[in-house]
Amino acid sequence: MRWRPIYIAALTSAALAGLAPAPLPAAPSDTQATAEMLFEEGKQLLAAGQLEAACAKLETSHKIDPAPGTVVNLAICYQRLGRTASAWARFREAAAIASRKGQHKRLEFALAQADLLAPSLARLTVTAPADIPDLVVTRDGVTIDPSLFGSATPVDPGVHTVEAHAPGKQPFVGKIDVPAAGRAEIEVPALEDAPVPVASGGGRVRTGGPLVGSEGRTSSGRRGRSRRILGLLVGAGGVAVAGVGLVVGLSARSSWHDALDNHCDADRRCDPTGLELGDSARSKAIVSTVLVGVGLAAAAAGTILYLTAPSERRRPAVAPVVTSDGAGLTLLGVF
Fold first, then answer.
1. I want to staple 281 with a disulfide (CB 3.0 to 4.6 A). Which of 69, 105, 132, 252 is the partner?
2. Which fold has domain 122-194?
3. Any bridge partners for residue 264, and if so which?
4. CB 137 within 8 A of CB 104
């Protein structure tokens, strides 16, 4: 049976506010009860050898409440399925959680298991051209940070899909089978230009630069301005939501201390009012944690949108256009 202190949901908001509420005895929340149920079902399926079903239960429990016991059992389930990189990552996660909680035996076990898996990890190296603007490379749908290009990163054995996209370029899709305990490499080639639009007369059109309006602004510049405005709005909304979360967290702390100071004895045995205040504080803490998390995520997303928006550039209001109609070439001016 896992044990999660009732004040853990308030930890994020309390830490941001520089506060540390003391525990108060109470029943687990519905969310924690669901995670506990899934954890127990996952353990039973794991013991019965139904690995796929066991991992699915434990994964859902982990998403709801990443308790050390859940993470360790999920790592064991992944290991038995042969998903060595996923197992290694979960053992490392369990060790980090156990270290924070002072669970020394679980910390030693998780680290020992991770160390045993490390030499047998399958590794995949993805390389990509450095001269393609706004290139995005994904592995199995997850974006690869450009700093990892050329690095042999741990992956589960099996087939992996690598895709690359960039504005104005044809996408690349490649698959590679990484053997267990082996190494593999896949290279994203220089992406070819996307097909150019066809002119109304049937000939192909190739422009010497982007067509511009009377103000001489490129379409990418207009998109960049809209993206920066959106980034500011999203970021500001995120900061506001996080602020509300902190206020709710402070209210949770106040209820907590009211219960401890006025309705509980030295052994933290509380009267009905104290228990009610504790339940209220716990609910507020969960709401605070969610609001702060969502707010910070939105603020980060807004910042990324703003910083990655294309810069606004001005180009001449006349662009050369070359058309081919099968009989020859014509140089035109576009005004």
1. 252
2. Immunoglobulin-like (2.60.40)
3. 270
4. no
pLDDT of residue 221: 59
Q: Would you tell me the crossing angle of helices 68-81 and 51-64 to the nearest 10 degrees?
A: 150
CA distance 295 to 298: 5
> Angle CA(9)–CA(10)–CA(12) in degrees, nearest 5?
95
Do 220 and 209 meet the contact criterion of CB atoms below 8 Å apart? Answer: no
Fold held by 8-120? 1.25.40
Calculate the alpha carbon distances from 64 to 70, 241, 262, 291 in Å.
Answer: 10, 21, 33, 16
Under DSSP, the state recorded for 184 is: E
Cβ atoms of 77 and 68 closer than 8 Å: no
Residue 205: pLDDT band (50, 70, 90) is very low
In this structure, what DSSP letter does residue 88 have?
H
Strand (E) or helix (H) holding 286? helix 272-307
Mean pLDDT, residues 111-116: 95
Average pLDDT of the residues of the chain: 78
β-strand pairing of 183-187 with 172-178: unpaired
* Residue type (1 letter), 71: V
Threshold 0.85, pTM exceeds: no
Give the tokens for residue 202: 């049937």
Whether the Cβ atoms of residue 238 and residue 295 lie closer than 8 Å to each other: yes
What confidence category does residue 245 fall into, taking pLDDT thresholds of 50, 70 and 90?
confident
Report d(CA 240, CA 295) in Å as an integer: 7
Q: Tell which phi-psi region holds residue 213, choosing left (phi > 0), alpha (psi between -120 and 50) or beta.
A: beta
Report, in angstroms and rounded to the nearest whole number, the Rg of the chain calculated over CA atoms.
Answer: 28
- Residue 165's H or E segment, with its range, is strand 158-165
Q: Find tokens 């979360």 and name the residue.
A: 245
